[in-house]
Amino acid sequence: MTKLPTAGKQKQVELSPIHDFAAKLRQPGILERLKDYVRWQVEWRKARDEGKPMEELYSSMPDQAPLSINLDVTTACNYACDHCVDFDILNKNIRYDHDKLIDSLTHMQSKGLRSVIIIGGGEPTVYPKFGEVVRHLKSMGVKIGVVTNGSRLDRILEVADVLEPEDWVRLSLDSGTNDTFRAMHKPKQAKVTLEWICEQVPAIKEKNPNFTIGFSFIIVWNDCEANDFKIHENVDEILAAATLAKKNRFDYISYKPFLTRAERNNAEIVELTQDDQKVDPIMAKIRERVNEAKQLGGDGFRVIESTNLKVLENGSYKDYTDQPKNCHMQFFRQVLSPLGIFNCPVYRHVPQAEIGEKHGYATPEDLLESQRSTLKLIETFDASTECREVTCLYNHVNWYIEGLIDHPERLDQLEHSEDRRDYFL
After folding, report:
1. CA-CA-CA-CA torsion sign (61, 67, 70, 72)
2. Residues 6+ apart with CB under 8 A from 182
3. Paired sense of beta strands 268-269 and 260-261, if any
4. How many Å apart are CA 136 and CA 108, to the nearest integer?
5. Is the pLDDT of residue 207 over 60?
6. CATH code for the domain of 286
7. Within 10 Å of residue 179's Cβ, how many Cβ atoms?
8. Is the predicted pLDDT of residue 57 greater than 70, yes or no?
9. Mean pLDDT of all residues in 389-393
């Protein structure tokens, strides 16, 4: 694990490997991309300070697509979850031209795309050509993650044969009983129950045991609200969910805190009352339940606490809102959606975070324009202001890159991290 630097306002907090993005960017085959970006930023800032025109600033830009993207293949969803952070963009009947989507992925892969997380927007498995997208990405050697509500696991079974050990599927279930599941997710078909979903996992594991299947549990405590709805509390089902996951051959269960949207700029944030008399008992109860669940770990089953949950519990989550002015990760990780290309999963569909339109990577000319738009947005999108309420998992790596830009002489001393073939950002 890597620890965050203690300089400045930030406390020392251990990062789990999945969230140690600085280490991921130092993997063999990736490190030179990081160095190219840092060197370009050094040149950009020098030229900008000298008053050179924008066209000259672009002349030395790295010819790269993002290393990793979140791919929203659709805005359609067959659930009506009150707590959905994408509630406002669902079922908008806005679509890709499918052939242009495939072209976009092809051009991005030719310029360095290494991983794709197929996620919301809506529910990805209801996209009619979901399987074609997965198989196309795998034919190009791209690592795949899928976040699904579990209602169409037949679609996952159909593509299981092409998935590899570094690929994964995560089911957003957030409950340990069917009553809570249906109250939270409101599936539109009566047959869709928590047990029905979980019971399909063993068949997928039988077809291909080599990729990872996870059970995602967003912890909702009393008084959580979103979209003007009071959200169903599930703290007392933390252990039941872990029991169900292990029984049905999930590889892990992960716990993370509830997020809502900020009124100011629609960013995803952790929202807590500052009244310690209310917060402390909530956190103590969550800790007790998670500790109970952790007793089920072993025999190939893991119980994972997200970094967001850890920093929420220890009170350091506000330190992750102390952002540098420039968000460098938007160069390495973006969101491709039917609504456009956006600089961060926190800001999908937010106008000030838009890089380009939905087919902005479909041709070499489009790709070049999106590269330029990305570099311009790095300069104009002020993360220290826009993200001041966001408990950002990229906080550490953004400060890390900022330090390299301030001290480019350190680039020659950078060493490769362990090659985990994990390019998910």
Report:
1. positive
2. 193, 194
3. antiparallel
4. 13
5. yes
6. 3.20.20.70
7. 13
8. yes
9. 84
d(C-alpha 101, C-alpha 84), whole Å: 25
Cβ contact 137:116 at 8 Å? yes
- Residue 127 pLDDT more than 80? yes
Cβ-Cβ contacts under 8 Å for 78 (sequence gap 6 or more): 123, 126, 149, 151, 187, 188, 189
Say if strands 14-15 and 2-3 run parallel, antiparallel, or are unpaired: antiparallel
pLDDT tens profile 255-298 = 988 765 444 444 444 455 444 556 778 888 889 999 999 999 99
Range of the domain at 425: 1-425
Q: In sequence order, what are the beta bridge partners of 219?
A: 257
Whether the predicted pLDDT of 4 surpasses 80: no
Provide φ and ψ at 181, rounded to 5°: -55, -50
Residue-by-residue DSSP string for 343-394: S-GGGTT-GGGEEE-TTTTSSHHHHHHHHHHHHHHHHH--HHHHTTT---TT
Q: Note the pTM of the prediction, 2 decimals.
A: 0.91
Angle, alpha carbons 183-196-156 (nearest 5°): 110
Report the alpha-carbon distance of residue 160 to residue 103 in Å, rounded.
Answer: 23
Cβ atoms < 10 Å from Cβ of 358: 20
Please report where in the chains the tokens 């500052």 appear, as a residue. 274
Identity (one letter) of the amino acid at 263?
A: E
Which structure tokens are listed for 349?
């569909």
CA atoms of 355 and 336, how far apart (whole Å): 10
Using CA atoms, how far apart are residues 290 and 296, in angstroms rounded to an integer? 10
Closest CA to 367 of 65, 29, 86: 65
The DSSP symbol for 298 reads B
Cα(36)–Cα(40) distance, integer angstroms = 6
Q: Cβ of 191: how many Cβ atoms within 10 Å?
A: 7
Compute CA distances 31 → 343, 395, 422, whole Å.
21, 19, 13
**Cβ of 112: how many Cβ atoms within 10 Å?**
18
**Domains in the chain: how many in total?**
1
Q: What single DSSP character describes residue 127? A: S
Token pair of 355, please? 């890089």
- Contact at 8 Å (CB) between 149 and 123? yes
Cβ(361)–Cβ(108) under 8 Å?
A: yes
Give the tokens for residue 317.
Answer: 């989550």
Q: Report the 10 Å Cβ neighbour count for 150.
A: 26
Contact 119, 72 (CB under 8 A): yes
